[in-house]
């Protein structure tokens, strides 16, 4: 069993083999033990410099990466587009090249345009981690979701996972589908007809437009928020949030009518009272906070494995 990744970057789940994913999850096990110690820091990335470059707003992902980097003893540079020269017309490549001139080894980037991380990886010598590119991919979220399922069930293979909500605009959904399938899980996409792309069935997943049927089928329900910011000013995808909640929102009454336990997940941020009620988000069925905790360990594992064998200029 290999102890090195088969890729120099993490741009999407397609970059990873099932063996790579297993290696990341096993490595995260070790870092989760580190995070449980009184001294929650190791020198694994000492003398490595990581730049967090976020062209889109983020709270959980940015803080999770920054904490992971600091727990590994890396030097951390944080960059926010809202206070940068990109507001003056500077290009993505110029911005990144200026940062890399400061001898950065790893770049964690979130960008509003699909493919931005791929573009960056082709034009820099640093290792690149995609922290979300438009509605395309969010690979570390998928990895931490898979880790959380593995932690709960002791495996991922054979677990039935329903991903519910705004599939059309969700980078989390696409990364999760790819990751879970590589690990042998069964996947269903559930949501309004207008929010599930027509090509989704070609991915080898089940499709449902009935939340109750999806919940009766699954072991895990990953509840996604409605991404109003990505829906533009065109025709509405559903009549109202109230109607969406009636059909696709998970509350205690709907959950208890199942007569079975379903593990509840959410990538955040939660629109409480829309896709999931507060009492269910905070219930014993929910592992949402465990996902947040596991995100640090998984991102530590990704950073550590990508940095392995790297020289101090970021050149392999």
Total count of strands: 9
What's the arrangement of strands in the largest beta sheet? 7-6-5-8-9
Helix fraction?
25-40%
What is the fourth-level CATH superfamily of the largest domain? Answer: Aspartate/ornithine carbamoyltransferase
In CATH, the architecture of the largest domain is: 3-Layer(aba) Sandwich
Portion of residues in beta strands equals 5-15%
Helix and strand sequence? HEHEHEHEHEHEEHEHHEHH
List the helices and strands and how they pair.
Elements: H1 18-35, E1 49-54, H2 60-71, E2 75-80, H3 92-100, E3 106-111, H4 116-123, E4 127-133, H5 139-153, E5 160-164, H6 171-182, E6 186-190, E7 206-208, H7 211-217, E8 220-223, H8 241-248, H9 252-256, E9 263-265, H10 278-281, H11 288-307
Helix pairs in contact: 1-5, 1-11, 2-11, 5-6, 5-11
Structure summarized in a few sentences:
By secondary structure, the chain is of the alpha/beta class. The chain has 11 helices and 9 strands.
Account of the 3D structure:
This protein has 316 residues and is α/β, with parallel strands linked by helices. It has 2 domains: 139 residues, Rossmann fold (3-Layer(aba) Sandwich); 154 residues, Aspartate/ornithine carbamoyltransferase (Rossmann fold, 3-Layer(aba) Sandwich). Helix content is 37%, strand content 14%. The protein has a 5-stranded parallel β-sheet, with helices on both faces. A 4-stranded parallel β-sheet has the order 2-1-3-4, sandwiched between helices. Helix 4 links the parallel strand 3 and strand 4. The longest helix has 20 residues. It starts with 17 loop residues before the first helix and ends in a 9-residue tail after the last helix.
